[in-house]
Amino acid sequence: ARSRRHRRGIMNSANKTTLRELDDEEEYLVSKGFEKVDLASCIKYLRMIDEHKLRRPDPVYRAASLVVNNQKRAKVQKQDLYAFMEQLAVAALDVNGVDTCDRTIDVLRETFPSSSRVKRLEGMSLEAKGRVDDAVAVYDKVLEEFPSDQRAMKRRVAALASAGRDKEAIDALAKYLDTFMADTRAWERLAGMYQERGAYRQAVFCWEEVVAAEPSVHYHHRRLAECLYTLGTEEDLRAARKYYAAAVDMSNAGDVRALYGLALTDNRLRRKGKVKGNPEIAADGDGQVPVTELGQHAAGLLRKMYAAGEKIGASKPGLRHIVEGQLKTLLDA
């Protein structure tokens, strides 16, 4: 039944598939589909990869190679063939097949001499060869002609970053986000680049954009809290405390870093209150909830987590006692 289903032909590109279906298709190809040169399944798999915007180099390389090298048997339209060749070129770079990539680009260039997509592939090939400056020049030329080419803009950022030209990469990514403000992953990347340079105030702005776009993702709240904690002013610590608490709540108390962050933040707020001689600093913004209450709650959850881990053998013996000592130091400070 399985083999009959795979021989039914090429999937309509309008069909929606699930990641489970994609994983099943990949499992079939790796187990026997590639060996049988099942071109229909290779085509179906490549389309599913494109639909879900995934990057799985080895199986994509093998599937695309079979389709491209058996064009007549595959009976695909030219437009589809060129899309598969593009997938082949990118996958070839990922598996260190630069020669295959270059041969594929040569064929595409003959058919599409002025295509920005082909030029972008040329830039990626140059990056793989270590010729980053040449790659940036290619992307610049593409953007002169197509100023809003999203992929070329992102490749240019990646090339600049890989060359260690961090300031230029940050400026390029900020310019990209002026046009594509809804790109959450780009905001994450910019936040990380600012953090690497110690520009935490700018990183906070970026993480706020990420949280606004994906408010139900707990680790976004935690990452924003970490930046605020690093800044360390009383106002920033209070904000960090709220975002750490949100991360704990959204993760059902499963985010260990958020739990530690909550305990650390409360510890710093209490120390600030002692230095200023102001007991009110040890209270929430409305003056009702002592900061120690959340810190103690987080510490209690951590104790339970490590105790359970030790009981079932998931954590190293003695680790719970080390954690107990750390938490005691935090809560007694």
Oligomer: single chain
Structural class: mainly alpha
* Total of helices: 18
Please give the number of β-strands. Answer: 0
As a percent range, the share of strand residues is under 5%
For the biggest sheet, the summary is: none
State Rg: 26 Å
- Helix proportion: over 70%
Task: Identify the overall geometry.
Answer: globular
> Which spans have pLDDT < 50 for at least 5 consecutive residues?
1-14, 285-289
Give the rounded overall mean pLDDT.
Answer: 88
| N-end to C-end Cα span | 67 Å
H/E series, N to C? HHHHHHHHHHHHHHHHHH
Characteristic key phrases:
mainly alpha, 333 residues
In short:
With 333 residues, this protein is mostly helical. It contains 18 helices and no strands.
Describe the structure.
The chain has 333 residues and is mostly helical. Helix content is 75%, strand content 0%. The chain has 18 helices and no strands. The chain has helices at residues 2-6, 19-33, 39-52, 57-69, 71-74, 78-94, 98-111, 116-128, 132-145, 150-162, 166-179, 184-196, 200-213, 218-231, 234-250, 256-276, 291-311, 319-332. Helix 2 runs antiparallel to helix 3 (39-52), helix 10 (150-162) runs antiparallel to helix 11 (166-179) and helix 12 packs antiparallel against helix 13. It is globular, with a radius of gyration of 26 Å. The relative contact order is 0.04.
